[in-house]
Design goal:
It is a single chain. This protein is an alpha+beta fold. Among the domains are: 239 residues, Aminohydrolase, N-terminal nucleophile (Ntn) domain (Glutamine Phosphoribosylpyrophosphate, subunit 1, domain 1); 203 residues, HUPs (Rossmann fold). It contains 26 helices and 18 strands. Strand 7 and strand 8 form a beta hairpin. The longest helix is centred in the middle third of the chain and has 19 residues. The relative contact order is 0.12.
Length: 643
């Protein structure tokens, strides 16, 4: 696990500017790799060098290392092939590296380390970009072919590991593991992306496309490879090597599906336990984190298992009692963190720096503190349950989508029976399911009206209309991306959630928070094989006729996870008592919102009036006040340009 950054340029960057940029970049991501650092650069003499930059440069590859596998210096990066043709910097873990190494050795390759990095490097050198399809893991890679003069930026299937890049134009392209790092590279603008700011503030949407909130900086999309010509600095092609798809359904019984899923999940856990350093598990008490924790104990009875839990004491979102059951079941050594609202003030600016862009709510702070707790006891690798809801139809089980699938297949009686069953669950009711049905059946124009109903309008008074107009902001409601094909609407919703509306932002939160404390966060649910398997199962295996979410996965875990955990009917998620916290911090809220007067997209007077008139200063159902606060502090910390 590491951090990377660099650039390619067809014009020389003066040595002093290049050295200053590299020094600033190293400082900005040193938390991602405190164990080692390396740099290689192509100077104007057309030779590659390592070490301090003392002459004008064209290309830079730089790396910081968090040592997880083979802690020796043999894992140093950038890596270079013996013939000097290929160079690589890499962030992540490819868990099946031992199996891939065996294949490569059979073709005559020899290895000098026990790292997965060397396996990744040799696989790309021998097999080209086709090697990526063989990788099981999380990765962000910059791979340079000096003979073809091509730079390949590669991101894992789900985008677990981040990779940002600047627009490849004017003969220049910069790239890095974190957005703030790119702000240190000469010529990279801090000007905002107006549309993305609007989407965040009004709709709460972010991390759903290749755009970031900085106009000049983009995400490389999950499962994509960007090929750049080093001579022109232009992108040649950006292509997708994998994405979740609606493949034909399997002809498989429920019990056989549960058994196959069980074996696949346990194999994922086995692979994700490969580590040469201390390892623990994040445990909320929900089904997913409990399954990961219990599976570790099931596979490794003698493993010194450590768990890390956020406790929201005296709050309806507290899950400590459920976490305790898993701790008792597994015999884990429990570590817990309890947070007072005032503690967030001490960390809020560091949290915003860590995330790099505005984010959704205070639960991200609770996650930040869990990783801080883990780092404090020497843990360097954590397994998490992220991704299970998106693969196996968790949350509230997509009741409207399931009903639509049944109706589309002509199963009117089953649809009615499912409706009557699903509304019996505590997180669902008739009105909620009915509203969702209207939403997914309504024409686009009507959906816009329904979305606006009961909310601030699409151009609320607290935004400056002139600024929106000048920047050509589109004031549109969220787009639902429903594909009218195959009559498998739950599966379609899962794909949408995995690729656009949910998982990408959750993975960003987890990566930044874990790496802030030099911890590698692993997510064993998120493998291409498991996703492909899920999307070929009948929908009633995911959401049962009785409305049970993740039904087949719960069946697969029956003798591994405590029964009471699997039979829980509530779904809390990783939540904090956000309203209570911000009520307590009301003086800080007012002081911070005063700074909105300096941000031209805000109508400061209208914003302050709306805040004063809100219920207890914080009650808006869209978490609007938090977004005001978050964006205001972000703009000040990073000196953002709104012009």
């Amino acid at each position: 696990m590491c951090g990377l950054f660099g650039w390619i340029s067809n014009k020389p960057v003066e040595s002093s500017a290049a050295a200053a940029a590299v020094d600033a970049a190293f400082r900005s991501i040193q938390h991602r790799g405190p164990d080692d650092r390396g740099i290689a650069f192509l100077s104007t003499d057309n030779q590659w060098h390592e070490g301090d930059i003392t002459q004008p440069v064209h290309h830079v590859l730089a790396h910081v290392r968090l040592s997880i596998l083979d802690l020796s210096t043999r894992g140093h990066q950038p890596m270079c092939s013996a013939n000097k043709r290929y160079r690589l910097i890499y962030n992540g873990e490819v868990y099946n590296f031992r199996e891939l190494r065996t294949q490569l050795e059979a073709q005559g390759l020899r290895f000098h380390s026990e790292t997965d990095t060397e396996v990744v490097f040799n696989a790309l050198s021998l097999w080209g970009m086709d090697a990526v399809k063989k990788f099981v893991g999380m990765f962000a890679i910059a791979f340079l072919d000096t003979q073809l003069k091509r730079l390949y930026l590669i991101r894992d299937h789900f985008g677990i590991k981040p990779l940002y890049f600047t627009k490849p134009e004017n003969g220049f392209c910069g790239f890095a593991s974190e957005l703030p790092t790119l702000l240190n590279i000469p010529g990279v603008s801090r000007k905002v992306h107006p549309q993305r700011l609007y989407d965040y503030l009004v709709k709460g949407d972010y991390d759903f496309s290749a755009d970031t909130m900085i106009d000049d900086i983009h995400h490389l999309q999950p499962g994509h490879i960007l090929e750049i010509d080093c001579q022109s600095g232009k992108a040649l092609k950006d292509y997708c090597y994998w994405q979740p798809l609606l493949n034909p359904l399997r002809n498989i019984s429920f019990n056989d599906a549960a058994e196959q899923l069980r074996e696949m999940f346990l194999e994922n856990i086995r692979l994700h336990l490969r580590s040469d350093v201390s390892l623990g598990a994040a445990l909320s008490g929900g089904v997913d984190s409990s399954a990961v924790t219990a599976a570790i104990r099931y596979l490794e009875p003698d493993f010194e298992l450590k768990t890390f839990t956020f406790v929201a004491a005296n709050s309806p979102v507290d899950e400590e009692q459920w976490a305790n059951q898993v701790i008792e079941h597994t015999g884990a050594r429990a570590h817990k963190v309890r947070i007072a609202a005032t503690e967030m003030l001490d960390d809020i600016d560091d949290l915003i720096r860590t995330q790099g862009e505005p984010f959704g709510g205070t639960s991200i702070y609770a996650q930040y503190r869990v990783f801080k707790l883990a780092a404090g006891v020497g843990t360097k690798v954590m397994l998490e349950g992220q991704g299970a809801d998106e693969l196996f139809a968790g949350y509230i089980g997509f009741p409207a989508e399931r009903i639509k699938s049944l109706l589309a297949a002509g199963n009117i009686t089953k649809a009615w029976q499912f409706f009557n069953c699903t509304i019996q669950w505590p997180d669902r009711n008739r009105l909620m399911v009915f509203k969702r049905l209207v939403n997914i059946y309504a024409p686009k124009g009507l959906r816009s009206a329904l979305w606006s109903l009961g909310r601030s309008n699409l151009t609320p008074e607290w935004l400056q209309r002139n600024w929106l107009n000048d920047n050509k902001v589109q004031a549109l409601p969220p787009e639902y991306y429903i594909q009218e094909t195959d009559n498998r609407f739950v599966h379609q919703a899962l794909i949408r959630l995995s690729t656009q509306t949910g998982l990408p932002r959750l993975l960003r939160h987890g990566d930044r928070n874990s790496m802030k404390f030099s911890i590698e966060s692993r997510v064993p649910f998120l493998t291409a094989a498991l996703a492909d398997f899920s999307l070929t199962l009948p929908e009633e295996y995911l959401v049962s006729p009785l409305g049970e979410t993740k039904s087949v996965f719960k069946a697969a875990m029956r003798d591994i996870v405590p029964k009471r955990i699997l039979d829980r009917k509530d779904k809390i998620g990783f939540a904090t008592p956000e309203k209570q916290w911000l009520d307590t911090l009301s003086p800080w809220v007012q002081e911070t919102l005063a700074d909105t007067a300096e941000i031209p997209l805000f109508n400061h007077n209208k914003l302050m009036k709306q805040w004063r008139n809100s219920n207890k200063h914080y009650g808006n159902q869209n978490n609007m006040v938090w977004r005001w606060l978050n964006l205001t502090r972000w703009a000040r910390i990073f000196d953002i340009d709104f012009s």
